[in-house]
# Entry
Amino acid sequence: MTDYSECSLTRFPAPVLSRPAEPVGEIDDSIRQLAERMIDLMVQTQGVGFAAPQAGVNLRMFVVSLDSTRDNARVYINPELDLSGPTVGHEEGCLSLPGIYSQIQRYGRCTVTATDLEGNRFTEEAEGLLARAIQHEYDHLQGVLIKDRMSRPAKVRARRRLRQLLDDYNETDAAS
Ligand code: NI
# Structure
């Protein structure tokens, strides 16, 4: 059994954040432990969602809780998305890109079909903030970050902060 209890938050430019994640196989104790760990990290950092690559794990699962509480956390394993328009712009941040906030265009509605921790497939209709959070987390499973969806001027404004994150990462790497 893979031990996921010590997973920690990964930040850009960790390679796991920019590659497509792999489907989850059997939902066993290690997957349940990973979900617990992801919820812990989301609650600690007051995020509204958390994807497995953000815990350094290359698997297709994420959690969402719009009020950042454990009670309202929902787990989505091997999710499929059906998007419907129109698109709406709203400010987003990402725990893996600290200090970067930008208007991001998302579809107003989506239908998500996913597996829960009991292994049951479920379908959920989402709109507004929930639809946005689901699309943001789903992007993580595709290796896509908000920096990849920002407008060109926003990218220019974020350039210094992105450079700083790259430098911090390289320093940590060199130190370890
Ligand atoms: Ni994110």
